[in-house]
Amino acid sequence: MPELPEVEALAAYLRERAVGHTVQRFEVSSFSALKTYDPAPSALTGLPITSAGRHGKFLDVGIGPEVHLVVHLARAGWLHYRDAFKSPAPLKPGSGPIAIRLRLDDGSGFDLTEAGTQKSLAAYLVRDPLTEVPGVSRLGPDALAVSRDEFAARLRERNGQVKGVLTDQEVLAGIGNAYSDEILHVAKMSPFALTGKLTDEQITTLYEAMREVETDAVQRSVGQRAAELKGEKRAGMRVHARTGLPCPVCGDTVREVSFADKSLQYCATCQTGGKPLADRRLSKLVR
């Protein structure tokens, strides 16, 4: 799933490549992906791309004086920028993985795609993202804008396992499964540590780790082409998606805990005092 650094990089790429051009055509292939009906897609024709930014993990493309295309790429969605499209023909409904296509006046544009059978990509054409997009209206402060004291207060308001609290978008906006693994590794903290029991020193360490990991990832991502961002993200990971490989800090084997629809990765030596965490999936198999 694209998180804060990748969405920030996509916004930066669109600011460089698309802002200033006008919309030639906005095409919808997957009608379930477009969650709004006013304004209509046809109303965008001839309007300029005026801005590109984000709200947490939501991409926000400003179109004309008052319209915003807000996109949540979900787990399997992506933005593919095209310098030119192979065919001028409009998309047909159900055109494979392509959900939405935006064509610009210079022949370029981008596709919003989603792989797999579980379709969660969501796009909104709205005038006010802060009130008209439910996911945006519920967001907590941005992970790279929150102060240390506000960070501490928000974590302590939600007593739970720190991994889950860090990824709760109503607590902090922008952190997902991948970078939370990285933050906890840098902070040398168990993903199952309870936020209500964290000391002030641990809170400060966690905050500094969050700033370090997210800032470094943004710096590595911004400037990359959209097609290169996934590879850049994987290359920069210390523990996430590296199960069975050596920890880059201590050399211990990176371990995994699996859940119904996702997993987390960690280093026992760095984060849990050498004690492996129980993998509930494996425990059920042993029984």
From TrEMBL:
<dbReference type="InterPro" id="IPR035937">
    <property type="entry name" value="FPG_N"/>
</dbReference>
<keyword id="KW-0227">DNA damage</keyword>
<keyword id="KW-0479">Metal-binding</keyword>
<keyword id="KW-0511">Multifunctional enzyme</keyword>
<keyword id="KW-0326">Glycosidase</keyword>
<dbReference type="InterPro" id="IPR010663">
    <property type="entry name" value="Znf_FPG/IleRS"/>
</dbReference>
<dbReference type="InterPro" id="IPR012319">
    <property type="entry name" value="FPG_cat"/>
</dbReference>
<keyword id="KW-0234">DNA repair</keyword>
<dbReference type="GO" id="GO:0008270">
    <property type="term" value="F:zinc ion binding"/>
</dbReference>
<dbReference type="GO" id="GO:0034039">
    <property type="term" value="F:8-oxo-7,8-dihydroguanine DNA N-glycosylase activity"/>
</dbReference>
<dbReference type="Pfam" id="PF06831">
    <property type="entry name" value="H2TH"/>
</dbReference>
<feature type="domain" description="FPG-type">
    <location>
        <begin position="238"/>
        <end position="272"/>
    </location>
</feature>
<keyword id="KW-0378">Hydrolase</keyword>
<comment type="similarity">
    <text>Belongs to the FPG family.</text>
</comment>
<dbReference type="GO" id="GO:0006284">
    <property type="term" value="P:base-excision repair"/>
</dbReference>
<protein>
    <submittedName>
        <fullName>Formamidopyrimidine-DNA glycosylase</fullName>
        <ecNumber>3.2.2.23</ecNumber>
        <ecNumber>4.2.99.18</ecNumber>
    </submittedName>
</protein>
<dbReference type="InterPro" id="IPR000214">
    <property type="entry name" value="Znf_DNA_glyclase/AP_lyase"/>
</dbReference>
<dbReference type="Pfam" id="PF01149">
    <property type="entry name" value="Fapy_DNA_glyco"/>
</dbReference>
<keyword id="KW-0863">Zinc-finger</keyword>
<dbReference type="InterPro" id="IPR010979">
    <property type="entry name" value="Ribosomal_uS13-like_H2TH"/>
</dbReference>
<keyword id="KW-0238">DNA-binding</keyword>
<dbReference type="GO" id="GO:0140078">
    <property type="term" value="F:class I DNA-(apurinic or apyrimidinic site) endonuclease activity"/>
</dbReference>
<keyword id="KW-0862">Zinc</keyword>
<dbReference type="InterPro" id="IPR015886">
    <property type="entry name" value="H2TH_FPG"/>
</dbReference>
<keyword id="KW-0456">Lyase</keyword>
<dbReference type="Pfam" id="PF06827">
    <property type="entry name" value="zf-FPG_IleRS"/>
</dbReference>
<feature type="domain" description="Formamidopyrimidine-DNA glycosylase catalytic">
    <location>
        <begin position="2"/>
        <end position="94"/>
    </location>
</feature>
<dbReference type="GO" id="GO:0003684">
    <property type="term" value="F:damaged DNA binding"/>
</dbReference>
